[in-house]
Amino acid sequence: MIIIESALNIIKANTTPLLKETKKQVEKAGGYKLCKDVYAPINMPPFRQSAMDGYAVCLHDKQIYNVIDEIKAGDNHQPILKKGDAVRIFTGAPVPDTANCVIMQEKVMVNGKSIKITDPMNLQDNIRSIGEQVKKGQVALKKDTKLTPAAIGYLSSLGITEVAVYKKPQIAIITTGNELVEAGTYLEYGQIYESNSKMLLSALYSLKFYEVTIHNIKDDYQQTVKALSKVIENNDLLLITGGISVGDYDFVGKALAELKVEELFYKVKQKPGKPFFFGKKESTLVFALPGNPAASLTCFYMYVYVSLQKLINNEREDLQRVQAKSASKFIKRGDRPQFLKAIYNNGNVEILEGQSSAMQQTFALSNALVFVSEEQTKIKINDIVETILLPV
């Protein structure tokens, strides 16, 4: 059994960024990182563009202008303005080449087919010049940029439909146990609905890891060996829930040993989540999580999350930790460090009732974990506690 810090260090040391290139449609590339520079195929904007609703004018030395036309967004005609001419124009519409200023409509008095300008104007006011954002051939986004919703919108505005990004890991979730049945089926005495795979799948999806498959294994040694052999071969990372303890029907550990998966550690001095395994076979990482749901999810956030971030070469690998004022009391039993399900809000944190490793209801309400070190024995109201913010 090892301590938390050692477990984290071993995981980081044995996780290598994938850095493999794949192509993604722009609308499906959110959360990925660019693996090469993206160059603008067009100017943005591609034409002189009005920044607001108003009037495009050809300036002269008087306040009165004759309105000769109207241009809406999407129009492509080019009226010719002489000095003293104006055209009604709308935001995003093309500004005629012969116009040299756009005056906002709030600064204009309209009288039939003429307007009077009430404020001073300057050349090129309220006109977005060609290539103001980016010019054709320039770098639009640099390599290693993470594609946020704004970045997706920006690339789409340039007419880009596909980008080269770093591949995300192929992940397999494996559940074990004869007692597990799918939700929606009849529940026999002694059976429970399987939930860990849905829980972990949702956690992965929320972090924008979508290349995930789920595999269900019964408590049979040969079936366990065969199934694990196949998923190890076809995936970058495995999440196994259950079967890692030392009971008569816990076959995962024995199967991993037969398949020559290198054990990097087994069991961590913590609560919940003590029976936790990490190993690797060649480049495939194997996490065997406890079967109890709260313990499984705690290990996912504390350890698997770190590995996932390193696989995709994110600079920040660990979840954010803050110091918060406790609104609750807590007495720790035993000498293991603990992760307590909690609700964090604006510098304060409430430790919830129901800290059992099987308690999903409490975790369902949580957005944080309070960390209680080995040396701590209790938490008092208003104590400052280390709080880990969950990505929920």
TrEMBL record:
Q: Which SMART domains match?
A: MoCF_biosynth (SM00852)
A GO molecular function assigned to this protein is: metal ion binding
Catalysed reactions listed for this entry:
adenylyl-molybdopterin + molybdate = Mo-molybdopterin + AMP + H(+)
Which keywords fit this entry according to its UniProt record?
A: Magnesium, Metal-binding, Molybdenum, Molybdenum cofactor biosynthesis, Transferase
Q: Which GO terms describe its cellular component?
A: cytosol
Q: In which pathway does it act?
A: Cofactor biosynthesis; molybdopterin biosynthesis
Q: Which cofactor does it need?
A: Mg(2+)
What EC number(s) would the UniProt record show?
2.10.1.1
Q: Which residues form the MoaB/Mog domain?
A: 172-310
Coiled-coil features, chain-numbered ranges: none
> Which EC class, in a word?
transferase
Q: Which GO terms describe its biological process?
A: Mo-molybdopterin cofactor biosynthetic process
Which InterPro entries does the annotation name? MoaB/Mog-like_dom_sf (IPR036425), MoaB/Mog_dom (IPR001453), MoCF_biosynth_CS (IPR008284), MoeA-like (IPR038987), MoeA_C_domain_IV (IPR005111), MoeA_C_domain_IV_sf (IPR036688), MoeA_linker/N (IPR005110), MoeA_linker/N_sf (IPR036135)
Family listed:
Belongs to the MoeA family.
Function statement: Catalyzes the insertion of molybdate into adenylated molybdopterin with the concomitant release of AMP.
**Can you name this protein?**
Molybdopterin molybdenumtransferase
Q: Recall the taxonomic lineage recorded for the source organism.
A: Bacteria, Pseudomonadati, Bacteroidota, Flavobacteriia, Flavobacteriales
